[in-house]
User: What shape does this take?
Amino acid sequence: ILGGRVTRRGAWPWQCSLQSGQSGHVCGCVLIARRWALTVAHCFEGRESADLWKVVLGLNNLDHPGVHSQSRGVRSIIVHPRYNRAVVDYDISVVQLESEVEETAFVRPVCLPQPGQLPSPDSYCYITGWGHMGNRMPFKLQEGEVRIISLSQCQSYFDMKTITPRMLCAGYEAGTVDSCMGDSGGPLVCEEDAGRWTLFGLTSWGSVCFSKVLGPGVYSNVTHFTPWIQQQIYIHTYLTD
Amino acid sequence: CISSCPSVCAAGSATCDPRHNNNNNNCTRCEPISLELCMNLPYNLTSYPNFLGHLSQRESSVSWESSLFPALVQTGCYQYLMFYACTLLVPKCDPVSLQRVPPCRSLCRSAKEKCESVLGIVGLQWPEDSDCSQFPEEGGNATCLLPEAGVEECSPSHFKCRSGRCVLASKRCDGHLDCDDHSDEENCGCSERALWECPGSNVCIKASMICDGIPDCPLLVDEANCSVCRDNELSCNNHQCVHRTLWCDGKKHCSDSSDEWNCVSLSDRSGSVLTVYRTAAEYQVCADEWSHELSELTCNQLGLGVPSSVAMVADQTGVPGRRRWLHVHPEWNLRNGSALQARLEKRSHACHSRRRVSLFCTREECGVRPAVGLFPHRRKR
Assistant: This one.
């Protein structure tokens, strides 16, 4: 996260870290149920085998997992069948954990939006992650407050790629607070009534985040995928061939 | 470079990687250009490191300059900017001497003079490693590159406007005028781009997206009329045909499992009466032998959390035999991991109690951040 700050321990209990072998943290992820997490499809490019991955929850410091952290292997990875790596469209995947997590104050799922429920343009939401800070990679989880940007306004910022209805933009024209490399798959959450937080986006792509001149970040629009996510969980939980 | 490279070096051995400090590190070789940005040059061999300090074409492809120059080309600041950029990114390799051929100083100066100020407007700097004095003057002893007739002004990832200006290929036919002469929005039919036009709209999709089970056109027309099933069959979402008796039996028969989607719902005015769609018809669930575990399974399967209240409601139709009933299977609890519809069965007799299941579910806790205890209370200062 660029322009963010260190989070308090356990402040974002749905944030998880998707880790692989020697590389350690590769992408962020988000807990949506005791056995299910979301991340983006591009994290698995070239390494789609579930055996390669583990999900770590309840983390604050990547280097010191601590007593509140929980680690789970990955049973299956479901990449959206329409994922297009060239335009980074349909950038979402569902991750089934080997076993249920234990729900604690430090590990809790976030709410999914209802079909059609979108954050209002110009409202403020939060992004979190262990991605690049512009000058270094952090050890401690970072958070940043970003403004939701309308689709049409976002389309005016980007020349290289098309902003599709499967995407959501948030941040600032000047790029002052933005997600960056290593934040991919992490959450964009907005506070709803009664202090409940809903997952509206997953960090997906953007311009060169270090430059701080080239517009907001682009997130996978979770609302668009809510029916697909529910369908995948249902199929993989209850159906046999 | 030593006149002849050791064979290990010529074979592209890792020992010749310029990052390795060994005796072979002066050994250069020509390699075919693979950097897409520079595929239309009047030469096709390059050698590394390049004039920007990159050690490989892969490093060049993800470099800052590989993003910068194509963006700058669009401003039309200098006709041969892309050619100049490519002489830095993928320098020409002389196949005889195996030496890099630099751009001429005049080419470097023209590019810098005309385009540096444009970069300054957005607060960016001209690439540091491209100091023009390092390149030879044309006509001197050393060979250098100048744009010849026929040099393409645009990179392969750009569209060339009729006026000669380069705009990104993605801007072609995007509904916005990007070329000064509007030529980027001419001849934009789907067929010209080898795509399929959605009937009733000007949206273009790939042919492979027709009838693939995922709607892409407005009004879902790309998924219409895709299957012809028999009377005793129903169409899956991906247009396979599956016998209607297999629909919602708890096992997937459509390869996309759509025969098992939306089989269970809570309907009626109160939104609580359990309804199961089995063999293409709606059934009520007889409350005889219903259990709390089945209530939990139902709420969970519907993604609605946990049961908050369950009731056995008397059937009000008043006409015996009018209602279709499903009964709890005697061995329902042996079917671990199965959906509710797999644990129900049709029987010849009606429901003895004539009571149906009515269920309310409560969403499980989500989106709650830790209690205040973790955060200090706000104190006025």
User: Anything to note?
Assistant: The interface with chain A takes residues 64, 67, 71, 74, 122-124, 168, 170-171, 174, 214, 250-252, 257, 260-261, 301, 303, 337-339, 342, 365-371, 374-375 of chain B (CB under 8 Å). The helical segments of chain B are 7-10, 57-61, 64-73, 81-89, 105-121, 292-301. The two ends of chain B are 71 Å apart (CA to CA).
